[in-house]
Amino acid sequence: MKNQNMPEENYSSRMKELQEKFRALEHEIEDSDTKNALSAINGMIQEVWRKVANLSESSESTSRRSFKDIASLYKNAPKMDMPAVSNPLPDGAKAPDFSLSDAYGNQIKLSELKGTKVLLVFYPLDWSPGCSQQLDLYQQEYAEFEKRGIKLLAISVDSIYSHGAWLVVRDLHFTLLSDFNPKGEVAKLYQIYREKDGFSERALYIIDKDGFIRYSYVSPYLNHVPDISVLFEKIDNIRESVNV
């Protein structure tokens, strides 16, 4: 029986070692029924090992495919193409303070980020088509946000457990915050909660080092991902004009 604590590569190494020993000793055994039996047993063991190894590789391959399938579920999800129903808080307004849990249960308080430029990314739901595409894009361009000194906080009404799974599946390395309980409370503070749907608009807020809103945007349709080049342009223009 396999030792459950022994790594798979150690089993392979041990099997090769035993096979070499058998071959070294095989010529010393006189031809007989015993030698034929030993040869048959050796062949059976090697065949079983090959099948076990193939099953292990097949299982790992299936797991990888399943994981990839989960990451691609959004491609077949229903479209979220409803028009916007909210108007965001205006530029120049004081950004409402809040405290929300990230995917690991840590509390992130906006006022404690004073002195840091913050981008709030409100999105409807984890796993949905537009949200998957938008956050994948921000992950791909994450170095550009870091270069501009921006702290990126993505917010939805999903639980921390959904966020945790989504972070892993999408390989995201920025902060996801859970506006889960009371549901949509922060989205309501920022005037972008869709009461009828139970989630927020797709919206952006750039907040300067002093906690004031310097740019706000709501996508005209839920499935519309904001142009990232325009977003970077807004960040750069604000930095030059008000030194945030």
Q: For the residues shown, what is the average pLDDT?
A: 84
Portion of residues in helices?
40-55%
- In terms of quaternary structure, what is this? single chain
Q: What global shape is seen?
A: elongated
Instruction: Give the C-alpha Rg.
Output: 28 Å
Task: Specify the number of helices.
Answer: 7
Strand order of the largest sheet: 2-1-5-4-3-8-9
For the biggest sheet, the summary is: 7 strands, mixed
**Structural class by SSE content:** alpha+beta
Helix and strand pattern: HHEEEHHEHEHEEEEH
Short description:
The chain has 244 residues and is of the alpha+beta class.
Structural commentary:
There is one protein chain. The chain is an alpha+beta fold. Helices cover 44% and strands 16% of the residues. The strands form 2 sheets. It has a 7-stranded mixed β-sheet with strand order 2-1-5-4-3-8-9. The protein has a two-stranded antiparallel sheet with strand order 6-7. Helix 1 runs antiparallel to helix 2. The longest helix has 39 residues, at 33-71. The protein is elongated and about 95 Å long. The termini are far apart.
